[in-house]
Amino acid sequence: MAPAAPSVLLLTCLVLLLGRASPAAEEYGLEITNNGPITTGAQATIHASLSMKNDSVASNLYHFNWIYAPLILIEKSEQRFNSVINVTGEFPGTFPVSVWVTHRNCWLCRPVARNVTVLQITEFITGNLTIAQIEDNRVITHGSSSSMGAVTRISFCLHDPSHYFKSASFVYNWDFGDGVYQITKEPFVYYNCSTMGNRTVHLKVIAEWEQIGSVIHEREMVQKTGDFTTALELLDAVKSIHVVGSRETHVMENLSLSLHINGTPPLALCWLIKSECIPLEGEKCHLVVINGSCYNLSHTFSDAGQYCLSVRVENGVTMLQTYHEIKVWPTGIHPAFFVLLCIALVSVMLGLVLYTTFRSNTQQKDLVEVADFDFSPLSDKKLSSHSESGCGQICCGSCFLQSSQEAARESHELLRSFYKPVKMYTV
Ligand SMILES: *[C@@H]1O[C@H](CO)[C@@H](O)[C@H](O)[C@H]1NC(C)=O
Ligand SMILES: *[C@@H]1O[C@H](CO)[C@@H](O)[C@H](O)[C@H]1NC(C)=O
Ligand SMILES: *[C@@H]1O[C@H](CO)[C@@H](O)[C@H](O)[C@H]1NC(C)=O
Ligand SMILES: *[C@@H]1O[C@H](CO)[C@@H](O)[C@H](O)[C@H]1NC(C)=O
Ligand SMILES: *[C@@H]1O[C@H](CO)[C@@H](O)[C@H](O)[C@H]1NC(C)=O
Ligand SMILES: *[C@@H]1O[C@H](CO)[C@@H](O)[C@H](O)[C@H]1NC(C)=O
Ligand SMILES: *[C@@H]1O[C@H](CO)[C@@H](O)[C@H](O)[C@H]1NC(C)=O
Ligand SMILES: *[C@@H]1O[C@H](CO)[C@@H](O)[C@H](O)[C@H]1NC(C)=O
Ligand SMILES: *[C@@H]1O[C@H](CO)[C@@H](O)[C@H](O)[C@H]1NC(C)=O
C-alpha cells in the first residue's frame, strides 16, 4: 500500500494541473466534504456534488473519478450529479482524497471540475468537550467561561459517524485542575465552580469492547483512549450598572456621565445615544474594553429633544443592559425662562398701573390745591405742590424702578438656580 502513495500523489498533481488548464472548469462547481476526523478502523463518508452555472449542460452525463489510496474503499455510490464513498484507514495520518468529473462518454477528455478534501485519521477517540452553565434550570452554553458559584455542566461529545464504538463501554476520568478528580460512566459531569480564576479541565476517555480477533479468531478485548482538554474561565457575573450624571443638558453643552459597573473586568462595554432606548443586540454601538469598574463618557448634543443612552456590559459570562434618558434643551431657552419673562412683564404692568393711578390721584389734588392758590398770596405752595408731584413721580418712579429691579434680580436668581445643576454637571 505504501509504495502506491507517491504515484497517487503524482496522479493527483497531474489531475489538478490538467484541471487548471481547462477553461470549462469555470462553468462547474464541485463541492467535496468529509465527516472526519475518524478513529482508525472506523469509516468516513466523503461526499462530492457537481453544480453547473449554465443549465444547458445539465442534460449531459457525468462520471466521478476518485483517488483515495491508501485508504480502503468500503462502498461507492454515484447519482447524476453526486457521488459518495465510504472509506476506512488502518493508520493514523492526514489523507488527501481527490475527485474529478468527466463527461461519461469521454473518459479521456479533460475533467470538467475537480476538488480535493483532507481526511484526518487518528488512533484515538475523537470528540470534543462542551461547557454549559445551569441557571434557573435553563442550560446556557458558553464558550469556555462560567460564572462562579453556579453549576457548570461539562460534557463530552463523541464523534463517531459510523457507529464504530456502538458496542464499547466507556469510562471517563475527569481532572478539574484544582485537585478534584472524578470517574464517571456518563459522558458529563456537574461541576460546582466556587473559586474564581482560570483552570484547565482534562478528560481521559477509555473505550473498551470485545471483538473477534482477525488472526487467531478468538475473542479479544480492544481498547481505545482519548485525551481532551478545555479551558474553563470562571468569572463573576455582571451584577449592576449605575449611570451617574445629569438627565438634562443643553445643546452644544458637554454632558459627562460616569458608568459604574459591578462585575469582574475585563468588561466589554458598548454604548449608544439615540432618540429612543434600544436593546443593543448586534446594534452598532461604541465598544470599549475596560479593565476597571468605571467608565467616563462625555457627549455633546447638536439638536434639542429627548434622548436615551443605552448601555450593554458583557464579561464573557453575563450580559447586562441599562438605559438613561436625557432631555436636551435648546441653548438658553427654557420654559422657566418664559415664566420669568412673564413675571417680569406682569411686574412692569403692575408698576405702570400703580404709577398711573397714583399719578392721577396727585393730579386731582393738584387741581384742588391750584384752586386754593388763587386766593393765597404765597406762591410757595405751588412749588411744594410741584415738588409733591415731583416726589410722587420720583416715588412711583423709584417704585417702578425698584419693582423692575426686583423682578430682574428675581429672574436672575431664578435663572442662576436653574443653571446651577447644569453647571454642576459640566464640571
Ligand atoms: C471544493 O470544495 C470545497 C468544500 O466543499 C468548496 O468550498 C470549494 O468551493 C470547492 N472548490 C471548487 C473549485 O469547486
Ligand atoms: C450556455 O451554454 C450554451 C451552449 O453551450 C450557450 O449558447 C449559452 O450562451 C450559455 N449561456 C450562458 C449564460 O453562459
Ligand atoms: C456509508 O456511510 C453512510 C453514512 O455514513 C452510511 O449510511 C452507510 O451505511 C455506509 N455504507 C456502508 C456500506 O457502510
Ligand atoms: C464539537 O462537536 C460537535 C458535534 O460533533 C460539533 O457540532 C461542534 O462543532 C464541535 N465543536 C468544536 C469546537 O469542535
Ligand atoms: C456549590 O458550592 C457552594 C459553595 O461551595 C454551595 O453553597 C452550593 O450549594 C453548591 N451548589 C451545588 C448545586 O452543589
Ligand atoms: C484567563 O484566561 C483568559 C484568556 O484565556 C485571559 O484573558 C485572562 O486574563 C485569564 N485570567 C486570569 C485571572 O488568569
Ligand atoms: C467634555 O468634558 C470632558 C471632561 O469633562 C473632556 O474630557 C472632553 O474633552 C470634553 N469634550 C468636549 C467636546 O469638549
Ligand atoms: C487591561 O489589562 C491588560 C492586562 O491586565 C493590559 O494588557 C491592557 O493594556 C489593559 N488595558 C487598559 C485599557 O488599561
Ligand atoms: C471619571 O471621572 C471622575 C470624576 O469626574 C474621576 O474621579 C475618575 O477617575 C474618572 N474615571 C476614569 C476611568 O477616567
Please sum up the structure shown:
The chain is of the alpha+beta class and 427 residues long.
How is this fold's topology laid out?
Blueprint: H1 4-21, E1 28-34, E2 38-39, E3 43-52, E4 62-67, E5 72-78, E6 82-88, E7 93-103, E8 113-122, E9 127-135, E10 138-142, E11 145-147, E12 151-158, E13 169-175, E14 181-184, E15 188-192, E16 197-212, E17 219-235, E18 240-244, E19 248-250, E20 254-262, E21 267-274, E22 286-290, E23 294-300, E24 305-314, E25 319-329, H2 335-373, H3 380-426
Parallel strand pairs: 2-8, 11-17, 19-25
Antiparallel strand pairs: 1-3, 3-6, 4-7, 5-6, 7-8, 9-10, 9-12, 12-15, 13-14, 13-16, 16-17, 18-20, 20-23, 21-22, 21-24, 24-25
Helix pairs in contact: 2-3
The protein binds 2-acetamido-2-deoxy-beta-D-glucopyranose (9 copies).
One 2-acetamido-2-deoxy-beta-D-glucopyranose binds next to loops.
Description:
This protein is an alpha+beta fold. It has four domains: 14-122, Particulate methane monooxygenase, b subunit. Chain: A, domain 1 (Jelly Rolls), CATH 2.60.120.570; 128-235, Immunoglobulins (Immunoglobulin-like), CATH 2.60.40; 240-329, Immunoglobulin-like; 373-427, no CATH class. 24% of the residues lie in helices and 45% in strands. The protein contains three helices and 25 strands. The chain has helices spanning 4-21, 335-373, 380-426, and strands at 28-34, 38-39, 43-52, 62-67, 72-78, 82-88, 93-103, 113-122, 127-135, 138-142, 145-147, 151-158, 169-175, 181-184, 188-192, 197-212, 219-235, 240-244, 248-250, 254-262, 267-274, 286-290, 294-300, 305-314, 319-329. The strands form six sheets. It has a five-stranded mixed β-sheet with strand order 11-17-16-13-14, with no helix packed on it. A five-stranded mixed β-sheet has the order 19-25-24-21-22, with no helix packed on it. The chain has a four-stranded antiparallel β-sheet with strand order 1-3-6-5, with no helix packed on it. A hairpin with a 3-residue loop joins β5 and β6. α2 (335-373) packs antiparallel against α3 (380-426). The longest helix has 47 residues, at 380-426. It is elongated, with a radius of gyration of 45 Å. Bound molecules: 2-acetamido-2-deoxy-beta-D-glucopyranose (NAG) (9 copies). One 2-acetamido-2-deoxy-beta-D-glucopyranose (NAG) binds at residues 43, 45, 74-75, 86, 161-162.
